[in-house]
Amino acid sequence: GRLEAVTQQMGYHPQYLDSFLKMQHYLMHMDGPLPFDCRHYIAIMAAARHQCRYLVNLHVLQFLRAGGDPQWLRGLEFIPPKLRNLNEINKILAHRPWLITKEHIEKLLKISEWSWSLAELVHAVVLLAHCHALASFVFGCGCEQDEGLGGRGSLKALSLGNQCFCEATAGNSCSQELLRINRKRSLDSCMELDSLRERMQRIHVETEGREEMRLLQQDREEGEGQRAEVGVQGGAEHHSDPFAGLSLLADPDGEVTGATNLACYMQDPDFGYQDFARRDEDQTQVFRVQDYSWEDHGFSLVNRLYSDIGHLLDEKFRMVDGLQSSAMAKRQGCEPSVFKRGIWNYIHCMFGIRYDDYDYAEVNQLLERMLKVYIKTVTCYPEKTNSEMFDRFWKQFKHSEKVHVNLLILEARMQAELLYALQAITQYMI
């Protein structure tokens, strides 16, 4: 069978891939508070918030394999109220996690016969954050668009033999073979990059001119009314989103494919990301890592309520931080750790998370404007990303370096959602 598109992309960084697969397998297939069919349905709900067919279809298959009720796949109206009650926190976590409060947690834990236990809720929160962040990676690396070439919407096209990619753990032959292949090949091969560009060009050759005209028209109409990036201290920028108006998904014939078939898995579909408001008169909104951090607070809480998941998450966070990015940093004239921290803190800044010991003026110095726009799009509304954007940003960078940026987005976003949710749970417990 062919390699999964996600693991194929992550395979450019085999050590990270190994830690990702271990965590994913534990989350979806090992002992835990939630039934297996519910885990996959929660993943469907999470992926639907970003209109990610790739993940929705994959987890539909896994839901059915786990013995899930096919009636549930008709939409939220056909699932138990307990699962349906998760919709609100799913919506907020996906788009504006800073709005989560202890009242949201209390509501879920105290609804008579449909109440959640703390352990179940922590499991669900990790699932939601994981799938939201993975949707960013799927769109950011073009996996959603690539799957469309094989017949978008086809469940068969998204399967890996009889196996979901999250089952390809470090201990089995699939993962070992994947790692062997990725170590053997030249990860930064120019042929690989040329092939990627040719594939993207085929997809967009008939629609590129039309899209560019629509893009220019959009810019003229919106002018200064739309911001494409969050302002940072030391030099906030205001401009229109240069990618606004590009098709979400385009078939080879140029027809834009909507995501109406995913609407049954979510409520309030118009609820989306809004720029985090940083107002001097309302500093209480800002999430200060010095007051609640993953290392000092989140890790111990999640590990206590959902055994061992904290260790697996922590390993994944540390692994992405340890990935080498010397080439990217060298082009920017800085140390790799400085460059990676700039990306990480910029992503957290968009969700209202601030580090008192960081000079945010560095973000504008380290990150080119187009890269910042790309990062914000993939992080905050990944469904607006398309393969052309992946090809256009930082053309001088290798494919593996672009994947590295998307891994940083995945992990920084996931940690941001977890920090808000776990802080709200902590406040409820206190």
Automatic annotation (TrEMBL):
Keywords: Cytoplasm, Oxidoreductase. GO terms for cellular component: cytoplasm; nucleus. Coiled coil: none annotated. The keyword Oxidoreductase applies. GO terms for biological process: cellular response to L-leucine; cellular response to leucine starvation; negative regulation of TORC1 signaling; positive regulation of macroautophagy; regulation of response to reactive oxygen species. The keyword Protein biosynthesis does not apply. GO terms for molecular function: L-leucine binding; oxidoreductase activity, acting on peroxide as acceptor. InterPro entries: AhpD-like, Sestrin. It catalyses: a hydroperoxide + L-cysteinyl-[protein] = S-hydroxy-L-cysteinyl-[protein] + an alcohol. SUPFAM superfamilies: AhpD-like. It is found in: Cytoplasm. Belongs to the sestrin family. This is SESN3 protein.
